[in-house]
Amino acid sequence: MIDTQNAPLLPRISGKLVGTILLAGLAADLTWEVWARAITPLLVGGPLQPAALVQSVFGLESLFAAELIHAIVGIVFYPIGYLFIARPLQRMIFPNLPLILTGLGFGTGLWIFALYVMAHLIAGLPAFLGFIPLTWASLVGHWLFGLIVATVVWLRER
């Protein structure tokens, strides 16, 4: 277990924080991409395609634009969400929660956001895509993403 209960609730805004956000986001996004495009097809017969979801949600025709939106969200905005929403909530509600569980919880939250809020409530697809094999591959990918963000942030704050 990694002790974080004596740390400040929110990070101090600084140049180092910007670097932490970008490094955590890049590392997590690269991990996600390897999982989604290289490993998932071997397990379930096809890749995870979050850009297709972005296209559905925003009505985009451009796959490039959808890939770019997904990359920016993963590299910049999700790590910000971890630092300013998920981790502070964890510290307030479960101050002794191990880092690994915080990362897994964050990843689970991202998965719910992607496959329930975005895919179901906004794009009109079945909730959690009907719990097909890609649903579970997506959960693992989001867990990996959450674990990498949490670990990189922890390493950078040591």
Question: What labels would you give this structure?
Answer:
mainly alpha
Number of helices: 5
Q: In percent, how helical is the residue content?
A: over 70%
Number of strands: 0
Query: What is the alpha-carbon Rg in Å?
Result: 16 Å
Global mean pLDDT: 94
How large is the share of residues in beta strands? under 5%
Secondary-structure-based class equals mainly alpha
Shape, please? globular
What is the first-to-last residue Cα distance? 15 Å
Note the main sheet.
Answer: none
Which helices and strands, and how do they pair?
Elements lengths: L14 H30 L5 H9 L4 H31 L5 H24 L10 H25 L1
Helix pairs in contact: 1-3, 1-5, 2-3, 3-4, 4-5
Give an overview in words:
Helix content is 75%, strand content 0%. With 158 residues, it is mainly α. The longest helix is centred in the middle third of the chain and has 31 residues, at 63-93. It is globular.
Nutshell version of this structure?
The chain has 158 residues and is an all-alpha fold. It has 5 helices and no strands.
